[in-house]
Design brief:
Keywords: Glycolate pathway, NAD, Oxidoreductase, Peroxisome, Photorespiration. One of its GO terms (molecular function) is hydroxypyruvate reductase (NADH) activity. Residues 130-327 form the D-isomer specific 2-hydroxyacid dehydrogenase NAD-binding domain. One of its GO terms (cellular component) is peroxisome. By secondary structure, the protein is α/β, with parallel strands linked by helices. Helices cover 34% and strands 15% of the residues. The chain has 14 helices and 15 strands. Strands 9-8-7-10-11-12-13 form a seven-stranded parallel β-sheet, sandwiched between helices. Strands 1-3-2-4-5-6 form a six-stranded mixed β-sheet. Helix 1 (28-35) runs parallel beside helix 13 (331-350), helix 2 (52-59) packs parallel to helix 3 (76-84) and helix 5 packs across helix 7 (175-188). The two termini are 45 Å apart. 43% of the residues are buried. Nicotinamide-adenine-dinucleotide is lined by residues 95-96, 116, 119, 123, 171-177, 195-198, 248-251, 254-255, 276-278, 302-303, 325, 327-328.
Amino acid sequence: MAKPVSIEVWNPNGKYRVVSTKPMPGTRWINLLIQNDCRLEICTEKKTILSIQDIIALIGDKCDGVIGQLTEDWGEELFSALSRAGGKAFSNMAVGYNNVDVDAANKYGVAVGNTPGVLTETTAELAASLSLAAARRIVEADEFMRAGLYDGWLPHLFVGNLLKGQTVGVIGAGRIGSAYARMMVEGFKMNLIYYDLYQATRLEKFVTGMLPLTYGAFLKASGETPVTWKRASTMDEVLQEADIISLHPILDKTTYHLVNKERLSKMKKEAILINCSRGPVIDETALVEHLKHNPMFRVGLDVFEDEPFMKPGLAEQKNAIVVPHIASASKWTREGMATLAALNVLGKIKGYPVWFDGNRVEPFLNENARPPAACPSIVNAKALGLPSSKL
Ligand SMILES: NC(=O)c1ccc[n+]([C@@H]2O[C@H](COP(=O)([O-])OP(=O)(O)OC[C@H]3O[C@@H](n4cnc5c(N)ncnc54)[C@H](O)[C@@H]3O)[C@@H](O)[C@H]2O)c1
Ligand SMILES: O=C(O)[C@H](O)CO
């Protein structure tokens, strides 16, 4: 028998029972659910990561849908419990869904939602922030200053890397990887090399394409050296050529330990590696060793292999900047993620179709208009045979 978990209840007489495993930012998501006849139960338990048993207790005997978090292990046990309770929808409040066993969800006919698009720029901005902080050694310099060690300007004090004219490498040039690439190319006039399984046509066009308004054409017209781009045919090409490399693929079997000991050794000695995707994309133990032996190599990490923990030795490395998985943490984005997650669950409960393009979710985010009668993004829509619509 599962232990009861503390909850806050909204609209107790609502017809549909929806559970959120965490309080989420903003109120729009709450209002949208209760205005649509949902009884909403928000888990207020103090511990950060809920266990499977906690979530089973939250689901209870009758539950129409759950909004959950990337820290939860959504597999056979939870989807069977949700299905037994009559549930048909689950949404992660995240774009990444490597914590979800989609095959198990398919088996129980549960739709799985995620929250693409709304976090693209925010996440890319954190990757850009980490790139700058690592290149200019901002965290080390801040610690030095606060420790009272600054006793005057010196020619060698905290010398870092100039970005302009250097090469930025992007691995996984999807929504976030492309947004980051644009920021670094446009903001710092860096040349671009990227690796992805697919061609990032819009990104390539942005950098140099033939249209009069592209960035490359603009630089040329202003008498500046145009930036260049290259699609690498192997990931190793990016590792060897780039001065800063930012990782933005999904986490799956093909990207687990994509950056390992051997690949680290192919990177330039003074390169910078940024990870705002998922921790296991890097072999973190190998990274710690690499940082120890290459003091001029720097990393900026938002995600970790055994989150919330770091591998032994990482915290002691001065050439590592570490932040606690905050890449999507801007107010607008987090409120938008909550809205998309709630609308995924609500849409399925109401029998709405699935929105035609998870890259164009803006209509759901307009606070002054009623959102489209659709689920913004359901990752297993095809497997479940759910109809899609532009409305
Ligand atoms: N740190 C954070 O807070 C944070 C925030 C948002 C997203 N993320 C992570 O970033 C990921 C990407 O998000 P997105 O919206 O850009 O997704 P996306 O699907 O638009 O982009 C992912 C890209 O990775 C590419 N890819 C897949 N397998 C690859 C491989 N083996 N080698 C190279 N490229 C490969 C895909 O082709 C795609 O272009 C998410 O899945 C999530 O895990 C993290
Ligand atoms: O996948 C995601 O969305 C992030 O990790 C949290 O924003």
